[in-house]
Amino acid sequence: MPLLHSAPESPRRVTVAAGRPLLQALLWTNAQRTMLLYGPADATFTLEQATELDGAWQPAYTNLTIPNLTRVLSDLPRTNRSIFYRLRRE
After folding, report:
1. Distance between CA 8 and CA 10 in Å, rounded?
2. Which one, of 31, 30, 35, lies nearest residue 72 by Cα?
3. Domain range summary for the chain, segments of one domain joined by +
């Protein structure tokens, strides 16, 4: 069954993830990094980060659940470097 949900910052947007996790990255004007996580409510995820795509991936958050099909993570660390994120189902 597809996952349909309207993103909080854009009520006209519909996200279809078909039961798979999806990330949306946002960068606010104060340089605060925020992630919108989309995924099935019955799953647990790990958000991983790396400074290079072919580098070592480290867990940023573990045991994440997405209780209402969408979860906002707004306390990501600030950095001047490029950083990559991926969401892995546990």
Report:
1. 6
2. 35
3. 19-89
